[in-house]
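Hi Q.,

Before the meeting this afternoon, I wanted you to have the 2-deoxy-2-fluoro-alpha-D-galactopyranose prediction in hand. No need to reply - just skim if you have a minute. The sequence and ligand are here:
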Amino acid sequence: MAIRHPQSERTWLRATTETVRRETLRAMTECVRAFAPGRVNLIGEHTDYNGGLALPFAVRDGVTVIASASHDGRVVAEAHDLGERDSFALGDRAPASGWRAFVRGAVAELLTSEVPLPGASLEITGTLPRGSGLSSSAALAVALCLALIGIAGETPPDRVALAQICSRIENDWVGAQTGLLDQLASLFGQTDHATLIDFRSLEVRTLPLDLGEHRLVTLDSGERHSNAIGGYNQRRHECEAACRALGLRHLSEADLSAARALSAPLDRRVRHVVSENERVLATVDALERGDLVELGRLLDASHASLRDDYEVSTPAVEAAVEALRDAGALGARVIGGGFGGHVLGLMPPGAGTPEGALEVRPGPGARLLDGDGR
Ligand code: GAF
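Predicted structure with the ligand bound:
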């Protein structure tokens, strides 16, 4: 026999079902764990903010954020690796520095995007060395956003939109005028694949990174770098000046013969961006043909361009690149913003590595973790 409910009972039933749904969702999202990996950029450096191409991959190391909803309108955050703490009201928009700027920026940017944050307790841990050029900053921003969106019971926006929110945190709260490379690499990572990004269209394609018996390794130059200070923002301003002078929206569209008329160092900056873009396409081609000797040659050419035309190398970076070459690398180069950090080398089968070098392999992208940490 079908059960018939009077109108008031049906309304009550609907309301109760909705309450149960909300309570279940709330219980499920009271505590979430988010992980975001760092990245290695195989090739395509300083092309992202110039509307060019890059070919990064997510690494296995990254940042984990455990978030619990607190429902008291406050955020309490602990950076375990540093033994530091921060506490602020949800609506507090006071600037901060270091890791605190990322937390405050994530909360503010998500509130601006109308994510209903309830107040949170955040625990931050990481396995990436900070200032290493392996993108610990973007990993922190991405993990924070995923965790906070999780406890708000919301579905994250699409990955490009999320990368743009994370990039605003770095630009407007941390003061580094970085592009979208690191955030997209972290969000789109896929095991055993590299991510080809076109920064003009924001189209993303994954392609197999099959190196056979060859290995990619990183080596620490021993010099910490920061995109918020130093030459990074200056390079970006130089590219904007070159764009204005050439009447272009994106420097990657520049014509090299026109660029020759620019005064130094803008002519060299353009030469790097245009040639690096070509090297990304040549790398895709080399990978598709399985030509790893050519890949090594392209890594070397990228390094020479970053050193001589873009001028983001340092003596410590040169020493690390040389150590990889001495160990038999087919190619080696500075990665990320430059001015320190790690360098990347392509080692042929059987080659040894300098002390401290670590193999890097493409891993999965940013995600919420299950209870057992997967
Ligand atoms: C840093 C920045 F964060 C990226 O946006 C990118 O410009 C890179 O340097 C250079 O390719 O990692």
